[in-house]
Amino acid sequence: MNNVFRCVSWVGVLMAFVFGLWLPQMTEAASGQSHELNYFQTSKVKIAGSNALRIEIGMTGEEPRYTVKELSFLRKQLIITLPNTEKGKVKSLIPLKSDFATQVKISEVGENLQIAIDFVNPPSSDKYRISTLPAERRKKKPARIVVEMFNGNASNGADNVPGIKGKTIVVDAGHGGSDSGAVGPTGVKEKDVTFAVAKKVQKLLTGSGARVIMTRSRDMDVYAPNATDRQELQARCDVANRDSRTALFLSIHCNAFSSPSAHGMETYYCAGSAKGQEFASLLNEELAKAGGLFNRGVKTANYYVLRHTNMPASLIELGFVTNYNEERLLRSDAYQNKLASAIVRGIARYFKG
């Protein structure tokens, strides 16, 4: 019995020793939130038919957070700061042979990382754009920041889309204010996705000479906080109906379902509206090509905003925010840009007849 007791005691001491050394290391590894650069690539691309330079900077973990600062005096630089990020094996100084930038300098500043891009000309918002992309396992690419530099006339990638100039289009970002809409598994809110895409659509349409009316210009209720559904939806219809020049009404939404496996995009129109059907069909085609999601089709629905607007109208569901993979895409700035460009192409095709 004493031998058994001594054996158990020694086992306990040994386990305490092992776990005493091992557990703190596990905790430290599990709690670490830092990222590390592991990818850098440049490429010459075309944006709106003009030459452009694309820089992709990849890192471990999810899509990165960052801040941006422009320097236009002693040095013509764009400085991107990444919190809790290490340089990894990426070179500290990378020369560039380009008409847009001369070099990229990467340096650690405390727990943050600074990426300084030396521009040939002073950086300004009409000469570059920054977005993020999620990891793409099939292409063996990590999550990355994408910096695109171009001439000012190529800034939005869809300038001068034919057939849109002079048209009045109402863009309705679904939900907002006291109504978050659906919420994804990591907390992405439908109202934020719809507004982000709506603003990008507005920019592209305006760049092509269209007159764009937004039902909401910020995170707000159109009628009033905590209004009834009817009051809120009618207020959105009123924005469109009060201007006789309105040619199209577009309502942007994200889908949701109790099962996280539900997936795909779809577009809707009001039954009996031939022009509404044409509009929804063109949007569906373009969104399916650009977004790459399962296409659930073009459908009729008794949605209030489709029945109570006086012009051809469509309501689009960009994807399921309750699906983890689609939620990740919907929050991505780069993916939102793809959707916005697809929507504008659909609108242009509608006006071309």
Short description:
The chain has 353 residues and is an alpha/beta fold. It has helices spanning 2-31, 190-207, 229-241, 274-291, 304-307, 324-330, 333-352; strands spanning 35-47, 50-59, 67-72, 76-82, 85-86, 93-95, 101-109, 112-119, 128-133, 143-150, 168-173, 211-214, 246-255, 265-269, 295-300, 313-320. The protein contains seven helices and 16 strands.
How would you sum up this structure, described in words?
This protein is an alpha/beta fold. The protein has helices spanning 2-31, 190-207, 229-241, 274-291, 304-307, 324-330, 333-352, and strands spanning 35-47, 50-59, 67-72, 76-82, 85-86, 93-95, 101-109, 112-119, 128-133, 143-150, 168-173, 211-214, 246-255, 265-269, 295-300, 313-320. Mean pLDDT is 86; it is low at 1-32 and 155-159. Helix 2 (190-207) packs across helix 7 (333-352) and helix 4 (274-291) packs antiparallel against helix 7 (333-352). Strands 12-11-13-16-14-15 form a six-stranded mixed beta sheet, with helices on both faces. A five-stranded mixed beta sheet has the order 5-1-2-10-9.
How many DSSP E strands?
16
* Helix/strand order: HEEEEEEEEEEEHEHEEHEHEHH
Second CATH tier, the architecture of the largest domain: 3-Layer(aba) Sandwich
- Classify the beta-strand content into a percent band: 25-35%
State the domain count: 2
Helix content: 25-40%
